[in-house]
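Moderator note: this is an archived Q&A kept for reference. The question asked for a predicted structure of one protein chain; the sequence and the answer are reproduced below.
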Amino acid sequence: MATKKMWGGRFKEETDPDVEKFSRSIDYDYKLTKYDIFASSIHIDVLKKSGFLEDDEFETLKKALDEIGDDIRADKFEYNKESEDIHTDIQNKLEEKVGDLALKLHTARSRNEQVLFDLKIFCKNELFDVVDLCRRLQISISEICKENKEIIMPGYTHLQHAQVVYLKDYLGSYAEMLARDVDRLNNVQTRIKLTLGSGALAGTPIEPNLYNEAIKRFISEHKELEKLQVKHADEVSNSLDAVSDRDFVIEILSVLSILNMHLSKFAEDLIIWSTKEFGFVEIDDAFATGSSLMPQKKNPDVLELIRGYTGTLYGNLISVLTMMKGLPLTYNRDMQLDKPPLFNSFEIIKQELKILPKFIRTLKWNRETIKKAIDEDETLYATDLAYYLVKKGVAFKEAHNIIGKLVKFSLDNSRKIKEMSDEELRRFSDKLNKEKIVELMDPETSIKSRKSVVRYKM
């Protein structure tokens, strides 16, 4: 049975039951419950200051909203799944508590703006949480780098051996990516302006300073909102734009997609490194699964899911971009559909970021296998040999050609370059000799010769 709505005077007939079900959003917008209480608490303050509420009416409404808020914090709040949305459900619960006085709550207020304000506070709060989780992952990566700072491994381009690198630099590259992600998350959060006063689209009879003061006052009085760091509220410069703006949702989905792309790349490296073919790292049993048929299997399912969910986040971004692309001003019901992809992306990212720090701390690095991969591949030092010839006066293009021929000869004849005699080496260049070759083909020497690079700071 349908519940009481926040609208309806103009209509003679009840909404069709299938339409009720089709248009209902409470199954997902219940996530905005506590934020809707915040918004209503701010709004009654505005109504009191502007003369639309008497002091005693304000106190009665405030007490009722606080009681609902207490139930939410105590996890005692139960929303009515038959309500059109969470905003309607709270309005109905308020009416049960204070009667017809609750009907004054919607003075100078549109649900268009109410939903938007709730969503903006929700997003600012979630963004701070994601930033915190990113930084925790950075710390975990830094710890792994410190514990394994001496490990040298093959670096890759095109998934082929390229040059030797420190493991700490390889992992540190992901810390750099996370740092950029944090910057983007913070920038988006800063651009989300908490404004009230647009009404449905054309403004209200209330002075803008009353909205601004009420927003600042409420946030300053509630410790759980301190992290939002709202030092001042913004005035509505264009009410039509304000109620129709979903740029911030699209920006968030974009930033979360980039972040998940980085996590997916990290997952892919670890998946490859954990294979029998590589064997660089072993995944802890607590973060792996087995096969229902093959007893020997140990599968990196956590990493594969992180990789797979990247497609979901990309899809969430595209769905909102597509939904918004042709909407006329101002509010349209299509915009209700911004929430499922937004909520879903936040949930996925937060789950991944909670798991990854624990996951990487349990990784077992197979040092001997990594060392063997370096020892068995002299081609990792080909660039070092080319640079050596350049220092001896050989043009780089010629040096590149000389060392290329030397490597080909080594591979075709199964001859280690370090084991070649001076006579063999001089066939390629009179500037090559065995003593210098052995000196240059050393992992530490190779890495330290690259002076332009600032090593990852742990």
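Archived answer notes: The domain at 113-200+243-371 is CATH 1.20.200.10 (Fumarase C; Chain A, domain 2).
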